[in-house]
Amino acid sequence: MARGRMGVARMSAFESWHYLLVLAACVVVTLPLELAGARVYRRPRRLAFALAPAALFLVWDLAAISAGVWAIEPRYTLGVRLAPGLPLEEALFFVTIPVCALLTFETVRRFRIGRRSFGRRSFGRRS
Known about the structure:
The chain has one domain. Strand 1 (about 1-5) and strand 2 form a beta hairpin. The protein has helices at about 20-40, 45-65, 90-120; strands at about 1-5, 10, 80-85, 85. The protein is built from 3 helices and 4 strands. The strands form 2 sheets. Strands 1-2 form a two-stranded antiparallel ribbon. The radius of gyration is 21 Å and the shape is globular. The chain has about 130 residues and is mainly alpha-helical.
């Protein structure tokens, strides 16, 4: 925390964006994978299945916050609360990270299948 005039502590404007910026960075890094052929956003049913467990973790997170076991540092969030103690960024975390993971998984899977298929064709083998 920065100190203003007269020694009064003040929050940096950037500090409250930390959590959201990290999530945005995850999206920015993995979004090109969709454009490269991961096809995650084009399969809403599969995407829904990937996000379903995240809903359970969100409920678990809410219970932990309510019980005082877990807390999110308010200075790293924008201050928008979806429930008592649950910042918007925490809810977005449970959507963003599974989607980014699925994008990465699908890209690696497509790359491996493509390499395997390419190798078979180039050596004349049939599957």
